[in-house]
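Re: that chain you flagged

S.,

Sorry for the slow reply, it's been a week of failed gels. I finally had a moment to sit down with the sequence you sent. For the record, here it is as I used it:
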Amino acid sequence: MARMMGLAIGAFAAILAVATTPGFGQTSEARSASDFLTETEGSVPAQLMALLDADGDGRASKMEYRVHMMQVFYDRDRNRDLYLVQKELPRVGPRTFAETDIDGNGRLSAFEFNQAKVLQFESIDADGDGLLSLAELDAFRRSLD
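Prediction finished late last night. Pasting the structure tokens below so you have them in one place:
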């Protein structure tokens, strides 16, 4: 259980760092959800929800979240080999990267990245209903301060 919690925390940190690193092919208009998690001005939760909420119902489902975050994976995969290596994630520390790298091969597969995303979603979804609300996104962002 302690190992899983450590992996969850490590994966969470890795994903935040990945998603806030300027990515291949991203412009100021095409931003990832996690870009907003580190901002402190404006209506951050509302901007974040606008990115995640594909169906416009005011909440982000686990599927909406995972689809968006996998887009982040592909944006960061600069050489298009379907793996992320440390140099593609310059803001992720070696320890966090290693904790997220489940098989220890020195690179993150889409599966490993996705598993980290599931853990991240569950840590944001405070009420466990499988949906992210504006309040949960805001509480999560504030917890990073």
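What I noticed first: Residues 32 and 118 are 16 Å apart (CA to CA).

Talk soon,
D.
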